[in-house]
Design a protein that fits this description.
Order of helices and strands: HHHHHH
Radius of gyration: 12 Å
Largest sheet: none
Oligomer: single chain
Number of helices: 6
Strand content: under 5%
Helix content: 55-70%
Number of strands: 0
Amino acid sequence: MPEQLSPLDGEMNARRLQLGMAWKEVATAAGISYETLRAVRKGETSGAPLTLRKLEQALRWAQGSINRVEQGGKPPPDSAAEVAGARPW
């Protein structure tokens, strides 16, 4: 039976696919280890505020998006990065 994704894992997965990134690319863009990224996605750790901010930047999400998803909301894309077409790595 396939593993059930948490809401955060599901949103992060959809966003990385939208950006055409592999998980290791997300970790590299955020400047964190793949293991830390996985632990945040799976809810094994809440992640330090700086770690979460780096992940939001790598995924081109607005600041606070991860907390919003954890509270049942949806993350808006960081419109400035989207418009500029900037890649965080």
